[in-house]
TrEMBL record:
SUPFAM superfamilies: OmpA-like. It is found in: Cell outer membrane. InterPro entries: Bact_OuterMem_StrucFunc, OMP_bac, OmpA-like, OmpA-like_sf. Pfam families: OmpA. Residues 1-22 form the signal peptide. PANTHER family: LIPOPROTEIN YIAD-RELATED (PTHR30329:SF21), STATOR ELEMENT OF FLAGELLAR MOTOR COMPLEX (PTHR30329). This is OmpA family protein.
Amino acid sequence: MKKLALTTALALTMGLSAVANAHPTNAGYATSSNDTVWKTSYGECWQHGYWTEEDKTVECGAEAAAPAPAPAPAPAPKMVMKMMDAEESHIVYFDFDSSKVTDVSAIVNYVGSLAKLNSIELKGYTDSIGTNAYNDALSQRRVEAVDAALAAAGIDTAKVVTYSFGEANPVKSCTDAGASRKSCLAENRRVEVNIDGQKQVKVQQ
């Protein structure tokens, strides 16, 4: 009875029928012009006669919606080891009229990084100074010297194939003469090393 009397008195004094309105946000409740829900002195929201349970708001006693569960973290990608084809080329350079090998450590290190060695191809060349016959023999000595250096480093030279081409396929042409010509043609005095094999690499499955 007390609540009913208080409600009636407030409605009469504040002109409830004229000022109160039902806003979509607070449908079913009496609100002021700025959409504030009217409440009794007990803190209870005033309900219109057409109020239903569907109109209940969190402010007026409805339970707040539970937050959506956080999505499960994506599983970490699975990594597996896979054999992949691998090729690399190196060049061993020589002094003029020499078959002395200076350094094959880069070749040895690369071969050591392979899971499987398929083949090593050696192609020997000279510069154009000297006769064709002499240069053919010199290019052969150069590939043999590289082959021997690889064998001494522990590489299976059964996988090595050698070719000698003399002064063919120059990578540098020069018009100099004398000592200057020898220096200019240095890039032609070489053994090209082509390595074919396979590496184990980690890939995403």
